[in-house]
Amino acid sequence: MIAQRVTRVYCPVCLQRFKFVEGWKEGDLVICPICGQKLRLEKTLEGWVGTRPEKGSEKEIRERSDEFARIRGYKFNEMKEDVLEGLLGKNKLFGDFYCPCRMMHVPEYQCPCQPTRGGDVEVNGKCYCGFFWRKDLGTIDPPPRP
Amino acid sequence: MADSNSKTKPMVYALSTCPYCKRTKRFLDTHKIEYDFVDVDLLEDSKQDEALDKLEKMTGKRSFPVVIIGKEIIVGHDEEKLKKALKL
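Output (structure tokens, whole complex):
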């Protein structure tokens, strides 16, 4: 038996493909369920892709981080605004919202970074930056990082 | 004022975007500690490599901030360690 092919949408932030929901149409705004990015749906020859309607803006990174926290059930602490300031600095200096606490400016470290998307918060209670926190833990400030 | 402070100025290796690095600098400013610093991410490539190699040898990782106070090396923003090293 041949498995039915699932239609997917490519997210340019986390570089993953997520499931296309029946009823979506070109131009719709959707949220990437993997990284929280707001995307406008576009149909291309290669399939469905999402584009970033507010690319590089403060609104974009605020919404993305809020959505990611909502999807995963994470919380923020009082470092939130400081980390957002760092993310805006990264965008200004290096062209996108890379992790402000790391040296590297590569897609893997686009916020929320790959380790965070991969479950670092569940394991360590927080992401590398102390931006996203597990809800069942306290948020001690500032956490000395390993 | 702290003894160590009068002998050697603390050296802070930071990233310009890192909120913990900013807190460390703010802590030193608040306590009126004179220090030198370098934002490693803003260095030109060759100097950046040099600084990263040096930090990796010292700390075994590429984590920021790194504060050097005399022989003490403090990785991450840690006010207790800073106070102890600076005898505050």
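Chain B is about 45% helix and 20% strand.
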